[in-house]
Amino acid sequence: MRTNTSTNRALWLFSSAILFIVFQSTAAPAQKHRIPSGGRVAIVIDERLSALRAAPNLSARLDQRLGRGRFVAVIGTERSQDGLTFYQVKVSRRKRGWVQSNALVSPARKADDERLLRLIRGSEDFDLIARARIFLDTFPQSSLRPAVLLIYGNAAEEAGSRLTRDAGRRLNNGEMIAGGAPEFSYFMNFNELDRYNRQGIRYLFDPATKQFHYDGAAWREIVRRYPHSPEAIEARKRLGAAATPMRQ
C-alpha cells in the first residue's frame, strides 16, 4: 500500500508541475484559475459534460458549469447506476463536487491524449482550435503531438479566411480614412482576432489582398521537432505556400 501511495504522489507532483507551467504560460481566460492541490490534476475539455454536481449521478443538484480549460484536482471516483464514471473533484479550496469523467483529461492518465485527439477530430471551428491548444499545453511529450499540431495549424489558416471576410464587412473604409491610422493597423486590431490570440494563434496581414494568414508556428514546430513524421510533408507544403512578406 505504501508503494502505491508513493507512486500516486509522484504522478500528482509530475502532472502538477506540467500544468503549473501551462497555467503560467497560457493566456486563455478559462485557465486563469489557480490549480487546486491535493489530487490528480485534470483539465476540462468538454463543457457539454462539465456540470459540477452534488452527487455522482446525472439527476443530482447542479452547482455550477465548469468552463473549458478549467483546472480541477481529482480526489475520488465512483460509478453511477447507469454505468457512468464520475470524478469527485476540487475546484478550489472550498469548492468540490462530482463531474462526469468524460469531461476531463489528465496527463497522468494513460490514453487521455488519444481520447482528446478523437474529440478534436470530431470538433469544428473555434472549438477544434481551443481543444487542440489544450492538448498541446497538456501533453507536450505525446507521440500524437505532430498530428495535433497539423490539425491546429490548418484550422488556424481556415479561420483566417473567415476572419478576412468578417473584417471586410465590418471595417468601414470611410471611418478608417477619417481615423487617420494606417489601414493595416485597423485590420491587425480587428477584435475578432482576440480570442485566437488567446489560443496562441498569430495572424499576418497581406495589405495587397487585405487577407489574414496564419503565421505558421505549428507547421514550423513540426518541421523542426518531427522532420521525419508524415505530418512534416504537409507542413513543408503549407510553409512553402505561405512564404510571402506580410504585416505582423
What does this structure look like?
The protein has 2 domains: 2-105, SH3 type barrels (Roll); 112-241, no CATH class. The radius of gyration is 21 Å and the shape is globular. The chain has helices at residues 2-25, 112-121, 125-138, 145-170, 173-179, 183-188, 194-197, 217-225, 230-241; strands at residues 40-44, 51-53, 62-65, 71-79, 85-90, 96-100, 104-105, 203-206, 211-214. Helix 3 (125-138) runs antiparallel to helix 4 (145-170). A hairpin with a 5-residue loop joins strand 4 and strand 5. It is an alpha+beta fold and 248 residues long. The N and C termini lie far apart (56 Å).
General form: globular
Instruction: Indicate the radius of gyration in whole angstroms.
Output: 21 Å
Straight-line distance between termini:
56 Å
Main sheet strand line-up: 6-5-4-1-7
What proportion of the residues form beta strands (DSSP E)? 15-25%
Poorly predicted runs of 5 or more residues? 5-32
Counting H and I runs of at least 4 residues, what is the number of helices?
9
Q: Tell me about the biggest sheet?
A: 5 strands, antiparallel
SS elements, strand count: 9
Number of domains: 2
Structural class: alpha+beta
Helical residues, percent = 40-55%
**Secondary-structure element series:** HEEEEEEEHHHHHHEEHH
The average pLDDT score comes to 88
